[in-house]
Design a protein that fits this description.
Length: 335
Amino acid sequence: MKKKVLVTREVFDETLACLAQHFDLTSNQANERWSADDLARRLQGKDGVLVTTGDRVDEALLSRCPQLKVVSTVSVGFNHIDVDACTRHGVMATNTPDVLTQSVADMSVCLTLATLRRLGEGERRLRARQWQGTHLKQFLGHDLHHATVCIAGFGRIGQAIARRLRGFDCTILYHARSRADAALEQAVGAVHVTKDELLARADIVILILPYTPQTHHFIGRAELQKMKRSAVLVNMARGGIVDDGALAQALRDGTIWGAGLDVYENEPDVNEGLFGLDNVVLSPHIASATEPTRQNMAMTAARNCVAALTTGAPPNLLNPQVGARVPGMAGQPAD
């Protein structure tokens, strides 16, 4: 008898076709938003599930789904999944690294430029038919070329951003828990700095670090006050890394010049204080939203799920100690 798999949000036809070859499949192609209770109810009797960042997988959910063997998220970030709880319940957890690196790096530069050049504000004025023609001091912004850009987080995406910024002749600084090797620093033209140096020196801060308890409110009121009044903050990482309430206040007060945000605390809810501000560009968590990238993400998640339920060794396993002990499965956990 085929194992049973649930897909919690709308995905591509080829993703469903891949899964349907192996499993008895149930999918939410209507793209309905499900509560935690809805998800737990629909997971009864399911062996696997494809989730997105809007689905919380925690102890409360897992305790209600004893048959579940794999949670495969269509994302590289996995702070919506309690991996320790998955391990306790013998559930494999997987993600989709690598496939979205280049698209997110592109969008990081896009959102940075949109913020620096006040693109959102200009478009709103134009659409409201308030533009009266060009004059010398209209919509004055800041340049990206020759700016000092500090990247917080220097994994694959941070490094890809740095490579793009070299074309703008930027001074590139980075901050990360572990310093990159000298050859990589030289290749991308980046210099490692402390967090305080990052805040003090940056014309632009781009956040692309993982969300953990240690990075919660990595940028808060105290950090914003250490930044230049002319500085721009761009959050490409995860909501919760920035204290959005403190940021809204800083933007109102002129503590920093502007911000570009693709992610938010408690999304899809957004701090109301951000909406009335012209000096922030808001985008709806779309950094990876190109058709090829999202298709690749979904197929990677599907392949993870297939491998987990057939071999016990999915290629992107977040808790490899589980894969080796799943009953009735051959293979070893992935590195």
